[in-house]
């Protein structure tokens, strides 16, 4: 059984937001078309408390895109974004969400960031998505959303590690591309056995 996993299509990740992914809003119509084809649709939502430790503003002398060592490893520091209850954390207003059956909120623990839909960045703390999918007998995920080289990539890699079949729909995602991170992300996903396909192909497989 298949499901569409829509990752972090939120205002702050779209043009005009606090952490815009170039052309991030262009995935919305593609995702809306895909949503209509799937019986199961799941979304993730970045949901940070104010003062989250992944924000550069929480560290004296640090700027966005700097890296620091955290308890769980290296952490990229970001502008304040997707703060709980703000308009930036809302889903893009043109995104169709009526068929979504579950929303996984992530990044709400103040001391740890969360890219993957499956685990926090310590790679140990689960979001509960694995259990939900298994309870529903969903074994294959089609992943879309933002950003290809961070939350989409980590969700795809973890989904594969958890034993699910994973497709990433290339024209339904965009990347930040920090220092070559986008090309590296596609390489990592390919090496992990993640299938990279078009939205037209996804529609036929849904």
From TrEMBL:
Pathway: Cofactor biosynthesis; nicotinate biosynthesis; nicotinate from nicotinamide: step 1/1. One of its GO terms (biological process) is pyridine nucleotide biosynthetic process. Its EC number is 3.5.1.19. Pfam families: Isochorismatase (PF00857). It comes from the Bacteria. Keywords: Hydrolase, Metal-binding, Pyridine nucleotide biosynthesis. One of its GO terms (molecular function) is metal ion binding. Residues 3-200 form the Isochorismatase-like domain. NCBIfam families: PRK11609.1. Belongs to the isochorismatase family. This is Nicotinamidase. It comes from Longibacter salinarum.
